[in-house]
């Protein structure tokens, strides 16, 4: 950083150059007076950020210009959004207030910038600052979707320029991105941005896998390009003969989607065949779109045999985010499956730029799935979950799921997320129908509320005035709307019962000579392991708490006081250390110094990239950065994340990890596996579960190893056993 020489003149030249590039990107949408507005916003941002620099040493103004450029070029937003993108950090980082902005740019701009500004202030440590900020941002979605779109542009630029940040910050930002921002981009139809965000997140959370796949893709690049050229040339010939104006090209799949495929199917890279998709983009008039797409489909399937199960028609029924395309998978000339996507220019622009492109073509397509989705979002937001974390979780759950199409008895089409049940459908129709639903008829056959719906089902709901929402309903609904309505109904009921419990507890405490006050109530709730006083009152009313146990509490209280103070000061000491941000936990060294446990959800072992997470009750838990739960923890509780690394360990310390083994069943196979593990490697086996089905062998083995080197070597030797087709490490014991 010290070596960075500042050449003001050169920087000013560069700023002007980037500003001009931004104006060029905005040109298609500029109207009278727009240029002046953008200039005004740029001047204010330049002035406000003039003494600030990014971690790389560059002037800070490069960032707002880049965000505005992404908003204009890659999302296709107009002048108001460009102004907001240039000013998005001004209120948060400088002395300029929202009022100043309102005076200069008006109410619309100030509303969007307020939505982009983080909440500042002190929060309850059990709440999460990040989740509150997510919530604030999402709540503005109902008002103005541009908030989210600018936020995505901001996040994309931060992800592209993250190499100069500290590692723990990289992890936190990358986790937030994969947890919330990538699903948001997906839902708003910004597929190009979604793929880039996922890839960049993976680059930081799981760098080894990322580099491995990138390297593999690069090695096969020439071979792949030749295959694509051979595959598309006969298609291009026939398209030209038929007079169809279309461009045909191969598009590589993202690293993240390849990794997902490897994980889901437990297969090595070599067995992932669809590393690319063929895309055919037709230049045609709006009224001929559907006909032309099917015409091209017919040409492709005449040349190559299609897989009948893999036809996806989003031209006749677009996805809820407006995505339209025809997908088929065909058998290529070398016996390899190839995905072909057929769409028009308009459809392609909507797929790439999502929401913003939508409004451009809105006239031609009044039945807009995105409008419906925004309406759904408004419904969720009208009844927001008081707990920000649950709210973000519910919201997220509805972002990534694919839709299924369900019909009402009268033939109206309803879109629901994949995995939705009859009860979800009932709530989708109307809240009262959901609340009083007792069953359903699916395709005229009676089914329970929990029945999972399939694409194309026709559903009739049966209700009863005596029915009320039940707790267990939450276990099988998947839509955020159903969840929030059930929760609010249960809360109301619970609150009524808790009021009675409060009175009972008051009387009991009086007889035990304990003062009824907030402090004691919280202590009793903690003692019985209830998360809140309301839960305590509710359980008292239900008779779940015995008076005898309350006496135990009184006895315990006296001895607990001393321990509690000790624990509290320990936690406070740790939080202080975290805040200093210079403290790294050394794992495997000096057990007395810091109290930690290894998380069973990912079983980290020496050599894994790890971080510490400060839990409320169990001290510090050590997770792998590629742990399935990591992105949620880092996204929501960034302030509780501790840096951690492995100390130089003695080889006699063993760590638990799991292996999944697949192969062809053979006499003595189990014996060969255990021989390699126990005798050749001297590794202890903790548990072994094996199933064999019609000659296919599957085994889950939990073993104790010293580090990742030993594990990699063990996997390599197991793969060499005849009959074994795959050995992978798995995340969890469950």
Largest sheet: 5 strands, mixed
Annotated CATH architecture of the largest domain: Orthogonal Bundle
Q: What is the CATH level 1 assignment of the largest domain?
A: Mainly Alpha
Percent of residues in β-strands: 15-25%
Q: Please, how many helices?
A: 28
Rg (C-alpha, Å): 29 Å
Strand order of the largest sheet: 1-2-5-4-3
What structural class do you assign from the helix and strand content?
A: alpha+beta
- What would the principal axes of the Cα set say about the shape? globular
What share of the residues lie within helices?
40-55%
Q: Terminal Cα separation, in Å?
A: 46 Å
CATH topology of the largest domain: Hypothetical protein af1432
Q: How many DSSP E strands?
A: 19
Round the mean pLDDT to the nearest integer and report it.
81
């Amino acid at each position: 950083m010290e070596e960075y020489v500042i050449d003001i003149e050169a920087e000013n030249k560069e700023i002007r150059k980037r500003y001009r590039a931004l104006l060029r990107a905005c040109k298609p949408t500029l109207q009278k007076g727009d240029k002046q507005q953008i200039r005004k916003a740029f001047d204010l941002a330049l002035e406000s950020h003039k003494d600030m620099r990014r971690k790389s040493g560059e002037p800070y103004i490069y960032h707002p210009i880049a965000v505005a450029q992404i908003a204009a070029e890659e999302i296709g937003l107009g002048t108001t959004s460009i102004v907001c993108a240039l000013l998005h950090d001004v209120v948060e980082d400088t002395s300029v207030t929202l009022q100043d902005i309102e005076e200069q740019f008006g109410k619309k701009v100030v509303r969007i910038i307020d939505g982009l500004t983080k909440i500042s202030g002190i929060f309850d440590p059990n709440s999460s600052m990040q989740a509150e900020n997510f919530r604030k941002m999402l709540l503005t979605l109902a008002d103005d979707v541009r908030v989210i779109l600018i936020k995505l542009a901001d996040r994309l630029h931060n992800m592209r320029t993250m190499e100069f940040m500290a590692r723990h910050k990289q992890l936190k930002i990358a986790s937030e991105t994969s947890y919330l921002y990538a699903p948001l981009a997906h839902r708003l139809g910004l597929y190009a941005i979604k793929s880039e965000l996922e890839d960049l997140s993976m680059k930081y959370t799981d760098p080894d896998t990322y580099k491995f796949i990138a390297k593999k893709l690069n090695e096969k690049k020439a071979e792949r390009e030749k295959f694509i050229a051979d595959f598309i040339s006969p298609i291009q010939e026939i398209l030209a003969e038929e007079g169809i104006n279309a461009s045909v090209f191969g598009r590589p799949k993202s690293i993240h989607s390849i990794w997902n495929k490897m994980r889901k199917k437990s297969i090595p890279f070599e067995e992932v065949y669809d590393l690319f998709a063929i895309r055919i983009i037709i230049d045609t008039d709006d009224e001929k779109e559907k006909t032309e797409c099917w015409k091209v489909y017919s040409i492709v399937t005449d040349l190559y045999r299609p897989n009948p199960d893999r036809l996806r028609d989003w031209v006749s029924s677009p996805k809820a985010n407006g995505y339209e395309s025809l997908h088929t998978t065909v058998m290529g000339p070398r016996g390899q499956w190839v995905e072909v996507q057929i769409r028009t220019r308009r459809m392609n622009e909507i797929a790439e730029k999502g929401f913003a492109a939508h409004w451009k073509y809105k006239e031609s397509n009044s039945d807009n799935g995105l409008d419906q989705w925004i309406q759904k979002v408004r419904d969720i937001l009208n009844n927001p979950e008081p707990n920000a974390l649950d709210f973000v979780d519910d919201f997220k759950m509805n972002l990534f799921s694919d839709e299924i199409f369900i019909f009402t008895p009268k033939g109206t089409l309803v879109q629901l997320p994949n995995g939705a049940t009859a009860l979800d459908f009932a709530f989708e129709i109307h809240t009262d129908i959901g609340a009083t639903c007792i069953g359903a008829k699916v395709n005229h056959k009676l089914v329970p509320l929990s029945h999972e719906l399939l694409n194309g089902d026709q559903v009739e709901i049966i209700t009863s005035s005596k029915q009320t929402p039940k707790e267990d309903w939450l276990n099988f609904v998947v839509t955020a709307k159903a969840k929030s309505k059930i929760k609010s109904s249960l809360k109301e009921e619970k609150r009524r019962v808790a009021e009675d419990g409060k009175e009972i507890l008051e009387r009991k405490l009086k007889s035990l000579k304990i003062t009824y006050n907030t402090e004691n109530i919280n202590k009793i709730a903690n003692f019985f392991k209830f998360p809140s006083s309301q839960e305590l009152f509710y359980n008292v009313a239900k008779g779940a708490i015995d008076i005898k146990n309350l006496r135990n509490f009184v006895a315990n209280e006296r001895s607990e006081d001393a321990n509690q103070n000790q624990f509290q000061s320990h936690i406070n000491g740790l939080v202080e250390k975290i805040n200093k941000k210079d403290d790294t936990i050394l794992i495997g060294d000096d057990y007395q110094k810091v109290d930690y446990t290894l998380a069973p959800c990912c079983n980290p072992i020496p050599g894994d990239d790890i971080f510490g997470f400060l839990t409320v009750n169990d001290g510090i838990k050590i997770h792998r950065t590629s742990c399935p739960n990591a992105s949620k923890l880092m996204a929501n509780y960034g302030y509780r994340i501790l840096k951690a690394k492995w100390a130089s360990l003695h080889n006699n310390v063993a760590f638990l990890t799991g292996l999944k083994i697949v192969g062809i069943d053979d006499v003595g196979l189990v014996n060969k596996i255990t021989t390699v593990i126990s005798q050749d490697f001297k590794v202890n086996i903790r548990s072994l579960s094996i199933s064999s089905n019609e000659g296919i062998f599957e085994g889950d083995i939990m073993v104790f190893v010293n580090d990742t080197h030993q594990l990699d070597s063990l996997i390599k030797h197991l793969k060499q056993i005849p009959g074994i087709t795959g050995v992978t490490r798995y995340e969890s014991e469950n």
